[in-house]
Write a structure and sequence with these properties.
4 copies of one chain form a homotetramer. In chain A, helix 8 (325-350) packs antiparallel against helix 10. The termini of chain A are far apart. Chain A is α+β, with helices and mostly antiparallel strands. In chain A, strand 13 (353-354) and strand 14 (360-361) form a beta hairpin. In chain A, 66% of the residues are buried. In chain A, strands 5-8-9-12 form a 4-stranded mixed sheet. Chain A has helices spanning 6-14, 37-48, 56-59, 80-97, 104-124, 128-142, 282-319, 325-350, 364-374, 377-389, 392-395, 407-414, 423-438, 440-451, 456-466, 469-480, and strands at residues 20-22, 25-27, 60-62, 69-71, 146-149, 172-177, 180-191, 198-201, 216-221, 227-231, 258-269, 273-276, 353-354, 360-361. The interface between A and D is large, with 91 and 90 residues.
Amino acid sequence: MTLKKAEDYIASLKSLGLEANVMGKKTQDLPDHPLVTPSVRAVATTFDCAHNAETRNLFRVQSSISKEEINRFTHLHQSAEDLIKKVLMQRCCGNITACCFQRCVGLDAANAVFSVTYECDQKHGTNYHQRFREYWARIQTDDLVVDGAMTDPKGNRGKRPKDQTDPDLFLRVVDKKRNGVVVRGAKMHQTGMINSHEMIVMPTINLAPGEEAWAISFAIPTNTKGVKYIYGRQISDTRKMEPTCRLDVGNSAFGGQEVMTVFEDVFVPEERIFLNGEVDHSGKLVERFAAYHRQSYGGCKVGVGDVLIGATALMARMNGVESASHIRDKIVEMIHLNETMFACGIACSVMGHPTKAGNYEVDMLLANVCKLNVTRFPFELARLATDIAGGLLGTMPSANDMDDPVAGPYIKKYLATVQGVDVVDRMKVLRLIENIVAGPGAVAYLIESMHGAGPPMAQRIMIGRQGAIEDKIKRVKNLLDLS
Amino acid sequence: MTLKKAEDYIASLKSLGLEANVMGKKTQDLPDHPLVTPSVRAVATTFDCAHNAETRNLFRVQSSISKEEINRFTHLHQSAEDLIKKVLMQRCCGNITACCFQRCVGLDAANAVFSVTYECDQKHGTNYHQRFREYWARIQTDDLVVDGAMTDPKGNRGKRPKDQTDPDLFLRVVDKKRNGVVVRGAKMHQTGMINSHEMIVMPTINLAPGEEAWAISFAIPTNTKGVKYIYGRQISDTRKMEPTCRLDVGNSAFGGQEVMTVFEDVFVPEERIFLNGEVDHSGKLVERFAAYHRQSYGGCKVGVGDVLIGATALMARMNGVESASHIRDKIVEMIHLNETMFACGIACSVMGHPTKAGNYEVDMLLANVCKLNVTRFPFELARLATDIAGGLLGTMPSANDMDDPVAGPYIKKYLATVQGVDVVDRMKVLRLIENIVAGPGAVAYLIESMHGAGPPMAQRIMIGRQGAIEDKIKRVKNLLDLS
Amino acid sequence: MTLKKAEDYIASLKSLGLEANVMGKKTQDLPDHPLVTPSVRAVATTFDCAHNAETRNLFRVQSSISKEEINRFTHLHQSAEDLIKKVLMQRCCGNITACCFQRCVGLDAANAVFSVTYECDQKHGTNYHQRFREYWARIQTDDLVVDGAMTDPKGNRGKRPKDQTDPDLFLRVVDKKRNGVVVRGAKMHQTGMINSHEMIVMPTINLAPGEEAWAISFAIPTNTKGVKYIYGRQISDTRKMEPTCRLDVGNSAFGGQEVMTVFEDVFVPEERIFLNGEVDHSGKLVERFAAYHRQSYGGCKVGVGDVLIGATALMARMNGVESASHIRDKIVEMIHLNETMFACGIACSVMGHPTKAGNYEVDMLLANVCKLNVTRFPFELARLATDIAGGLLGTMPSANDMDDPVAGPYIKKYLATVQGVDVVDRMKVLRLIENIVAGPGAVAYLIESMHGAGPPMAQRIMIGRQGAIEDKIKRVKNLLDLS
Amino acid sequence: MTLKKAEDYIASLKSLGLEANVMGKKTQDLPDHPLVTPSVRAVATTFDCAHNAETRNLFRVQSSISKEEINRFTHLHQSAEDLIKKVLMQRCCGNITACCFQRCVGLDAANAVFSVTYECDQKHGTNYHQRFREYWARIQTDDLVVDGAMTDPKGNRGKRPKDQTDPDLFLRVVDKKRNGVVVRGAKMHQTGMINSHEMIVMPTINLAPGEEAWAISFAIPTNTKGVKYIYGRQISDTRKMEPTCRLDVGNSAFGGQEVMTVFEDVFVPEERIFLNGEVDHSGKLVERFAAYHRQSYGGCKVGVGDVLIGATALMARMNGVESASHIRDKIVEMIHLNETMFACGIACSVMGHPTKAGNYEVDMLLANVCKLNVTRFPFELARLATDIAGGLLGTMPSANDMDDPVAGPYIKKYLATVQGVDVVDRMKVLRLIENIVAGPGAVAYLIESMHGAGPPMAQRIMIGRQGAIEDKIKRVKNLLDLS
């Protein structure tokens, strides 16, 4: 049993020897690539925190399987308190990294697969649960990073998988071998994939009889033969590759990362398959994973929000306007919205319940409410930060100009504000705000807040289903003595 | 020890012999007055629920003082779970009554006074805590309804109490007797006062040295000599007094009630005084009471919201449009907003903490966030209900026209919708919606949502204070390596 | 040719001898009924303004038919400037009455019927346009008030007229006579109907072949045989009938009025029929009337909004908080939203265009945008007014208590605020705010803002149709050189 | 007299020989620099449109000075119709370029300086108006691009110019010569400056006696000695410099551009000075320029919004979801918000009035209302576009990967959607959306929408001043018969 340190994690990641297509080039040594390194560091934070004095208690927990102490990022939740601590842990990581730290997806996938395999076995007499339990015991013991892969390309959104021009547009089983299956397809938007040791693959929609080939869930190592990665561009990504000063990136220490993952006839051995044709359990898997992941956003995005609020308040102070009533009012609004998301993350945790398999599940309704707020409030936080930060957010010269004998002194002279404020510090804070509202950080803070764990319409459908409308109508009928 | 039943409560209330000025007339036998009766029934629900099979477990709890089983509406919270159950209990009452059931204010006051008196005694060597504990033990044992009186008239809002033209505009001690004090002033907007046995009076603002006369907190029976009540008008209130059909009230079973309460040189005996001149503890009392009460709104208003959503969905069904996508979308939005408020009520509960005195206090930041959402979302719920309900909401004929031989049949003919829907049922649902969005129920659902437990600016000030802005700035400095 | 004065109008109205069922009673002498009188006075304002020095230029215009000077409320718009002046005139009336002054509906109906009859004649060789022109010439000359009746009861909203259980749920021709037709049905929510001399009836939806019986438009005097009126209840309506002080109504001078209008086999003579079976012109009539009326709301509701803003600002001043930054900020927000609606009213006017018949039509897209904003912003204005007005908005004692020897002095003592502010004046302002946000005025300011001229979904459909999406897509294709 | 063509403009621009510091390098031949070229093309569009058959009538107008035909971008507005046409012209340019076309600032400055100089001369006996008239006559005749420079660096926002640690933080006169003055300082966020022939410099705030040195307005050629330019970074700017495929920029044809402009002891000859120490006219200049420029945003941002809506609708179509009700609803909402801004731009134009100098000024209140909406709605449009565009917006591979023999085919296979949709076309549309909501275009569409022509608080102050609050209060007093 090991609780990996950051350096252990990075070493183990490098040993996987992953390759990806990055901006047109086949690339190796990914963890050392300037586009990738910040994202590795963000994941590494989840290991660091299990060792730091201030955070270790929150990040460590006793495994329900091995009874050993493990990193909470690999935990099967055993109580509402565990669910709450998950949210607190995520907010903490967001506070430190100001970006997506990528390790929740696998955690959320594992907790969903754990309970769904149990119920599938109960109904179909399959043996998935025990398999998964053994698989996951090793993840806990080795303290591995696991990605969860759900989003299929989907092709024509108006058509079912089998009605697509190309049936591979939803990942599917293309061949059955004696001891496993062969799968083909792709998963999109895979956050943190190339920083992971393993991935859990799941279907992306509720499937119906006749769609058995697409009802497949399994886990494989990220360096499995036939798996290909194509790196996703981010806003202002190449600033990370600019030779000199790192100032312009805004958050040079940490960052997120996404890839398109292609499965070119990949063989999956029997013992790593957790669903295979049981279409009636596909929807459950989608809903539960989504619910856990929608809860997650009540932690991680709130953590990033804290940094954005801090940066905005600091900018106001640097500009000499922190006590202006309209500035204070906007900061209060930012806090209010951020804490409302947090409240939803906490509430869906505490109102959680045990599954038949014994782990804990969030309240479905409130988890969806949480995420739906996350598709709105970060955008308003970003707008308010843009308001307070000022026009320089979009017009500030390059950090490279600071070294220029002519431009440098002018920038220092004319970007000066309150006495005692260092101009470069001020530029750093502006670039951090830019990073989150209109830079690489905005991929996670805005675009992923909209689409991660499903777009708003997916939450709305769930809220409609979970909202107990018939109960509410019944109350009205009681109150008014209606028939 | 008794757990009163509804009828016991009503009998005990009648025995108090309260009088009030009601629409220009000195009025006795208040509980039987048609304007008042629905509000008595709403309070009585809090007693009923402690006996009904479905709800009794939630509404009963072991007293921390007597160890006997008491009504949760008189409980000193002992855990986060208690705080959560308080919110669930309030949502339940809102579900049943669709209005303000008036019994939370005293509960919130008691929990605030309990901890503040403890801390005041610690600092000033006073004896308030033991006094209050004894006082409250009797409230629990006798299962009494207690109102909390905080809102002073305030006169010129730009001036301190002692700078007002009339110093009585904030309730104050005007004379000190050997065994008590004499107070003069008024408390505004007293929800449920004339349905209560007792009241706890508190200051309305944080006071400073020199303002000792206003730093007074105490409890007295509602029928104390010198206390006068002037009944507050509500929207469409006199429909409750109309002779024939009750249909037009919308919610004829239940209702809220507010009075202006005047203290004309009222004597308060020593043993019922819980603060008297310790200005440094006045602010705490205000903040804590307010925080508990802001939490309350995450339960009660959500409960009313459930009824409004149910009525709106039922109206859509009655009109034959329930499956229209824009209708479903609006219902989902109503549920989403309602559950967001609930999430905040739950979250500020679970994140609560014990006070020095041993009872449990809500998380101050999240309780204020909860209430700030309550100053917004019910208005949007009301707007959406207005959208779906249709124009008839503002133009429907009087129920009295139903008995008219000419008008009655026309109404039945032309207000018919989906086959099988009874026109009178449809009218009832419309009137219920009107009651909540633009009738007597709107006093609680909209105006009180705005101003109860303080207007939005009060919450914003607290959010600014509790929002840990300096911590957030520090995180930014760490991330960016700023000095 | 006469330009009636207010007293002429009232006299002429009385001479019609209209009857209505009012709260269960058959009632005559309607203009003198306390529920009705304020609404008559509101309509009378439209006559007064044509004589007052300050407003007469705006309210008078040269008739395009007779070339005589007429009241602009009967004008067929001849230019964009006419359309703008219409909006300004409506804002002016809103400013004076703080309520719905009821005379726009007929104006909007006339302008729609004028152009649609022309086009119908062109296509079908009918003679409607000349008929209407002659009819309307008399309206202008006699300066009459005309109501427009469009909203059918609609029954099951999911079904067409002929598929309803009762085909009368949409008004229809039930018999054809040699010199006219007989109609049966009802029109709902008829604002100002019993204060009108005439009414123009129109279909409520776009009709298809096979629905000819419902494609009927005509004008009749309001006192036509077979027409029945059932009075609509308004929020807090009976305060208008309370014996003593008028303070509690909030706006005792003016008010709105709605009735349900039943057509019990009413004969319509040939010369008053403007559409009869030409289903292909029914949709045009609906859309054009709706567009004109959606423009109207950019004037009248803005005028009421001005009064609400003024009352709110005055209340802040009376409370001594007018210079608080958050108060000023909320007043600014109210002005901003109000002026945004006004801007839409003006813009759809100036972007208007001539019809084939020669009168001027508003820009369809912008008129719908205007109204869609009106379904939102007044609700936010009301919310902000509620915030600033304070809790007293929902809890203030009855005006009758002012005369009570005990209660009266207490109210005066404890409702006092800034020195020099009269308490009764303060109560009047509070009641005016209550009137608009949660009293009889809210029927027009909120419920009618939502549903008048069609609910929001009706505007959304038109915006989708008029929004030139294909043009926008084409621009993208050009920019990106797409095929 | 010439009406320049695009190529004439570009040639004349090159002949200026401007230099700038661009990302750390002193750079010449700016119009040919890949970062700059798209912005030159955007300005060139304003010339093209004066020659294209479809647009020439809108873009050409008779000069009030020379009576010759000129480009409307140099026009002194003579009527409300001119103001409206200005907005239409701007929307048209936004439609073509999908970005900031940079030529409005000088137009807005000229119209403000024209009327303020007139009034200053009237009061102070100065000769500025005639000077400016002569200066501007040449601009019209030569069809030049003029920038307007208002925004000073401002240093500590809590201090006046003379109280700053460095008085140069507001541009000021540092020396007076016999035939001119010497100025020092900087102007920030200068949109289009290095694509301009001339600039008009104005003070940034209302100045008071004792601040004469800062009350300076003048015009100089952009290649004047002592003027230095430092290029501003934009989001994802260097994609414009990437060697291969231009797909990733999103809008490779057009773009915006901003510089920081430093005035290092620049000599300004007497005949180019339009204000020099008359502090009482500085505020007017600021307000009027701002009002014209706030009107502008009701045209240009709406034009970009059209493109964003078109791209979003096209993406929905390409994904096969265009007929989903929630998609249509969001597109309608985008149109609604976009047209609301347009309505404000049109309304402040038509409600404009002539100045004493004879040109036309927008309605101050409505122009500020227009801009305040622009600080909100584009953010919501961007959020809705993000919703519909999908997660690929933030995770799509680089265009360079298309050429890769492994990655290219995978991208084509898995990004396929509706049959017949070209994958590269789909990628182009996604990149265009990215460009506007989170790419270089977002600098203009979001950040500039917030801060251009002043941040929201500047508009709020003006709305508070222009909102006629006292009139509104007076109306309430009249209605209620208050003293």
